Amino acid sequence: MDIQTVAWWKAIVESMNDGVLVIDRAGIVRTINPEYTNITGVTPDIIGKPLVAYRPGAQLPKTLIDGESRVGVYRKARGREYVVDMAPIIVDGEIIGAVSVCKSLNEVHTLTQELAKQQETVAELKKQMRSIYKVKYTFEDIISQDSKMRDLISIAKKTALTNLPILITGESGTGKELFAQSIHHTSLRTNEPFIAVNCSAIPVTSIENELFGYAEGAFVGALQGGKSGLFEMADGGTLFLDEIGDLSMDVQAKILRVLQEGSIRRIGEVVERKINVRIVAATHRDLRQMIAKDLFRSELFYRLNVVSIQIPSLRERKLDIPLIINSVTPQSYTVDEEVMNFLTSYDWPGNVRELRNVIDFAVCMTEEKRISIQHLPDFMRKHHTLYADETRIIPLHEAVDEAEKKILQHALQYVGATVQERLKLANELGISLATLYNKMKKYQLN
Ligand SMILES: Nc1ncnc2c1ncn2[C@@H]1O[C@H](COP(=O)(O)OP(=O)(O)O)[C@@H](O)[C@H]1O
Ligand SMILES: [Mg+2]
C-alpha cells in the first residue's frame, strides 16, 4: 500500500462512529480510533504494546487462534459498558490480525432510563385522567318505584354490558345523564374514561375541533403539536353526547361518518385514527319530529337509537315525588303534609332537578327541621296560593300571568331556538313573534 492509501484507510477508521481496535498476528495493538478511547477509556499509548498486557480479560487474541468471529460480547470496565464485535483479519487464507469494533451502552442505558421515567409519567397521567373522568352516579342512585322506570333501568343494566349505542330521551332534569353515567359504571369500560359533551354548550365554530381534534397549523391559533379531540380522549371508554338534537346537520354528518368508519381524522390531517368508543346520546327534543322537519339526519338517528331509553317526566310518575322528597330531605327533618300534597300535585317542568333544588332550598330556609309552605321558594309559594288555596282571592292579572307563563314554559320546551321555529310557535299561540319575545323576556324564559 502506498502512503496515500494508508492515510485514506486511517482517515476512514478515525472518522467511524464505533470504537475500533486492531491487533496484529502477534497480538500487538496496531491502531485504535478516537471513538475507542471515548467508549472504553483506553488511550492511544496502548499502540505498539501487547493487548493482553493492558487488558488481561481481552478475548480478541483468541480470535487470532480460532479464526472465529464473536458478535455482541458484553463488556464492563472502569464503569463503562459496551458491546464488542470481534473478527479475524484474513489475507490469502491466513490470519494476519484481528479487529474489535465496540458500541457504547451508556447512551442506550440513559435512553432506557429516560424511557422508563416517561412511561411512569404516562401511567400516572392515565390514572389521574381516569379519576377525572370517572362517573359519579350508579344505578343505585336512581330513585324510582315507577314500573316503567324499573323496566328502563333493567334494560339499561342489560345493555350496559354490550357495546350497543344507546339513545336516552326525556325532558330536562329527568335523569338522562344519571342513566348515562350508570351505564358506563356498569359496563366493562368502567375503568376507562367517561367523556360527557354537551353539544348545545360548545360554540358552533369550535365543535368540530373539540370533537375530532386538529393538526398543528390547521388554522390560525391552533395549538403547537395539534390537539386530540373528545372522541380520542374517550378511546376505550364511553362518549356521552348530551343534547345531540342541538347539533347542526353538518356536524351530524361528520359524527355519522365516525360511527360508520370506527375511526376519526383530525382536522387538517390525512391519517385515520382507529377509535374504540361506546356512544351514549341524549336529548330532550323529539328527534322523529326533527327528522320530519329536516333538522335531524335519520341515518344518525337509527344508528344511535339501537337501544332506546325514554324517561317519563316526573309528572307522569307522581308516586316518585314523595319518594324523592324523603330521600333528599335529611333524616331528622319532617315535611308538612300540605307541602307533600302540594309538591306531588305540582307540574315540575324542570323534573327531578327542579324538585331537588326546591327541597335543598327549603331545608336551608327552615330553622326547626320542619318544612312548611313558607319555606318553599317564592315562585312556588305564589303558585301554592294560586292553585292550592281555593278560598283565597288574588288579583286577576297575577293569575293570568301565572297561567300564561306556564303555557309558554311548556311550549318552549318543544321548539328550537331558531327564528323560524319560534315564528311557527307564535302562530300556533295566535300572537306575533314580537309579542312572543316580549312575553319570554317578561317571564324570563329562554
Ligand atoms: N330518578 C332520580 N333519582 C334521584 N335523582 C335523580 C333522578 N333523576 C334525576 N336525578 C337528579 O336530578 C338532577 C338532574 O339529572 P340529570 O341526569 O342531569 O338530568 P338530565 O340530564 O335529564 O337533564 C341530578 O342531580 C340527578 O342526580
Ligand atoms: Mg342533562
TrEMBL record:
Family annotation (Pfam families) = AAA_lid_14, HTH_8, PAS, Sigma54_activat
The PAS domain, residue ranges:
5-45
* Coiled-coil region: none
Q: What keywords appear on the UniProt entry?
A: ATP-binding, DNA-binding, Nucleotide-binding, Transcription, Transcription regulation
**SMART domains this protein is in?**
AAA, PAS
**Domain Sigma-54 factor interaction spans what residues?**
142-364
Q: What is this protein called?
A: Sigma-54 interaction domain-containing protein
Q: Which organism is it from?
A: Sporosarcina contaminans
What lineage is this protein's organism placed in? Answer: Bacteria, Bacillati, Bacillota, Bacilli, Bacillales
